[in-house]
């Protein structure tokens, strides 16, 4: 590498998700084949080698305190958000971010940036399973639950695991333009830019159950029969409360409205039915949508793709030779 190489420093630690490290690193290495000049450096808080979440040992190039990054990335791990972020990891992130021209996280690496205060007042994202937890920990941040990655100034955060590849491609494009980045994406056989957000990959009916008996009763009612008459007025009558009061309960506990909750349940059920092989017209009826067109509008709004496109993309990993 030349003395002027762009230094990409990736902060790793025991338990780190290996693909969070290898995916972005491979993008930068591949970019070098097409004329870029990146030097990928792995560091840990103390300079000691680390062991990944699958037991593979990762040799590092040194300690965080010894590095001078142009771009700083912190990888994620299953450790977070289950545990508080270790103090030495927070200090390492602060040191590296203070020296870098831009700072980024892969997957739950956002919790490291958040613990260091580096997401304060910024938009951010992380893996769809834990966006609610990131929002709870980083109350001054605006967490975007459906984004593949988010840029706020010189701070970048990405969704789960392979979204780190999307983010790395975006950083390469920022440095070297679309033409070189397109060659990198083609070489790695990945999308230059994925359509839709990470809700495409989320499990049905995500999120914790409601805490209050009243909201839980309505949630159970809707989940048990998504095709029923679930207007706000009808749902409010089940609890003998006003529509306004029911809406307030949902906003306070679920951060949504009753109508949007019903739509989400139907949307999640529709995805599951499409995965099972039902036709889109059948799914619209089975999931409780008034028509196929109303279901299509919800898919486009939430995922930027149609139900048919979703089914083609996610029903099977096997590709037809005639496709």
Short structural description:
With 323 residues, this protein is of the alpha/beta class. It has helices at 18-33, 79-82, 87-99, 109-115, 131-137, 163-188, 213-224, 232-239, 243-254, 258-275, 280-286, 292-303, 307-314, and strands at residues 6-11, 38-44, 50-51, 57-58, 62-63, 71-74, 102-105, 123-124, 142-143, 149-152, 155-158.
SSE map:
Blueprint: E1 6-11, H1 18-33, E2 38-44, E3 50-51, E4 57-58, E5 62-63, E6 71-74, H2 79-82, H3 87-99, E7 102-105, H4 109-115, E8 123-124, H5 131-137, E9 142-143, E10 149-152, E11 155-158, H6 163-188, H7 213-224, H8 232-239, H9 243-254, H10 258-275, H11 280-286, H12 292-303, H13 307-314
Parallel strand pairs: 1-2, 1-6, 2-5, 6-7, 7-11, 8-9
Antiparallel strand pairs: 3-4, 10-11
Helix pairs in contact: 1-6, 8-9
Highlighted features:
323 residues; alpha/beta; 46% helix; disordered C terminus
How many H/I helical runs? 13
DSSP, total strands: 11
CA distance, first residue to last residue: 42 Å
The proportion of residues forming helix, as a percent range, comes to 40-55%
Order of helices and strands: EHEEEEEHHEHEHEEEHHHHHHHH
Q: What is the average of the pLDDT values?
A: 89
Shape: globular
Work out the strand percent: 5-15%
Rg result: 22 Å
Q: Main sheet: which strands, in order across?
A: 5-2-1-6-7-11-10
Pairing-aware structural class of the strands and helices?
Answer: alpha/beta
Largest sheet properties: 7 strands, mixed
* Poorly predicted regions: 317-323
């Amino acid at each position: 590498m030349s003395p002027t190489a762009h230094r990409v420093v990736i902060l790793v630690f025991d338990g780190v998700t290996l693909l969070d490290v290898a995916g972005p690193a491979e993008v930068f290495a591949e970019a070098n084949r097409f004329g870029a000049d990146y030097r990928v450096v792995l560091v840990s808080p103390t300079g000691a080698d680390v062991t990944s979440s699958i037991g593979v040992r990762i040799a590092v190039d040194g300690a965080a305190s010894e590095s001078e990054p142009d771009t700083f990335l912190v990888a994620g791990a299953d450790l977070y958000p289950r545990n508080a972020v270790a103090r030495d990891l927070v200090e390492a992130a602060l040191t590296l971010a203070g020296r870098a021209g831009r700072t980024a996280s892969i997957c739950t690496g956002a919790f490291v940036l958040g613990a260091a205060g580096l997401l304060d007042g910024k938009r951010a994202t992380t893996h769809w399973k834990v966006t609610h937890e990131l929002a709870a920990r980083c109350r001054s941040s605006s967490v975007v639950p459906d984004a593949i990655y988010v840029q706020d100034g010189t701070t970048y955060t990405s969704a789960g695991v392979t979204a780190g590849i999307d983010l790395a491609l975006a950083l390469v494009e920022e440095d070297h333009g679309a033409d070189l980045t397109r060659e990198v994406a083609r070489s790695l056989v990945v999308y230059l830019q994925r359509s839709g957000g990470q809700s495409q990959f989320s499990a049905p009916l995500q999120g914790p159950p409601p805490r209050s008996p009243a909201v839980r009763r309505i949630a159970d009612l809707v989940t048990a029969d998504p095709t029923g008459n679930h207007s706000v007025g009808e749902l409010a009558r089940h609890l003998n409360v006003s529509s306004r009061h029911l809406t307030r309960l949902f906003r306070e506990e679920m951060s949504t409205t009753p109508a949007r909750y019903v739509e989400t349940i139907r949307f999640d059920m529709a995805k599951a039915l499409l995965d099972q092989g039902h036709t889109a017209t059948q799914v619209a009826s089975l999931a409780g949508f008034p028509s196929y067109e109303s279901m299509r509008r919800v898919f486009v709004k939430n995922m930027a793709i149609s139900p048919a496109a979703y089914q083609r993309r996610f029903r099977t990993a096997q590709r037809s030779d005639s496709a």
